[in-house]
Write a structure and sequence with these properties.
- The structure is a single chain.
- By secondary structure, this protein is an alpha+beta fold.
- It has two domains: 59 residues, no CATH class; 136 residues, Umud Fragment, subunit A (Ribbon).
- The chain is built from four helices and seven strands, in the order αβββββαββαα.
- The protein has a seven-stranded antiparallel beta sheet.
- A hairpin with a 2-residue loop joins strand 4 and strand 5.
- Helix 1 crosses helix 4.
Length: 227
């Protein structure tokens, strides 16, 4: 193995180790965040506009991180809570993440609590998307607007054991990256190509150049003089 091959091999190993460390840090962060927030999946992305109350019919994804409604492409932070502590005082009530009572294996729903009640010691939550017709948040709504009458048609609210947690923060815009990856067959290859290009430009090429310069300096002939 010549000098160039040795340098390239060393650089690849160091780059692979660096990437592995970054991946471990990211995974560890999410695992730790889930543990701290008492929920299996503490981060999700808003995919539909059911929680968006737009101005001029636009759901632009902007706004404050603690804004009362959600936009498509928002990243939401979820905290697992005691169902009895969930605020059901509409319109200032909590936004919760829950499984569809008639299809628990489906993608969880992110909607606002509009009222809650107990039946035989178990708590139930009636919910509604802020932007769903016919009445939008924060206007008063009727029982016909409840998800239990519009989505799963049972009239019964969300049982407390189907509640995953409540939304405690939103991060605008960044979730569009995930939506792009999920909805575009070229999304994942495109992101991978960008990551690889950045790794090459930021790590591999500078390291190869530095190592090559060091080797050239070491192998330069030294002039000798005869006195």
């Amino acid at each position: 193995m010549n000098i160039t091959q040795k340098i390239t091999h060393s650089v690849y190993i160091k780059s692979a180790v660096a990437i592995a460390v970054v991946v471990l840090i990211v995974v560890g962060f999410f695992v730790g965040l889930g543990f701290a927030l008492n929920v299996d999946v503490p981060v999700r992305v808003v995919k539909s506009g059911s929680m968006c109350v737009p101005y001029n019919d636009l759901c632009d994804g902007g706004g404050h991180v603690f804004e009362h409604t959600l936009h498509v492409g928002d990243i939401i932070i979820i905290q697992g809570v005691d169902p009895k502590s969930i605020n059901a005082d509409y319109p200032n009530s909590d936004i919760i993440v829950y499984q569809n009572p008639t299809n628990p294996s489906a993608i969880p729903i992110v909607h606002r609590v509009v009222t809650s009640y107990e039946v035989n010691g178990s708590r139930y939550f009636q919910t509604k998307g802020d932007g769903n017709p016919t009445v939008k948040w924060p206007n008063p709504i009727s029982t016909q607007d409840y998800d239990s009458n519009r989505i799963w048609h049972t009239g019964q609210g969300v049982p407390e054991d189907q509640v995953i947690g409540k939304v405690v923060m939103r991060i605008p815009w960044l979730g569009h990256i995930t939506l792009f990856l999920q909805g575009n067959p070229w999304g994942l290859p495109f992101i991978i190509a960008i990551i690889l290009a950045l790794v090459v430009l930021e790590f591999i090429l500078p390291m190869i150049k530095k190592k090559t310069q060091e080797q050239e300096t070491k192998t330069e002939p030294v002039d000798s003089f005869v006195i």
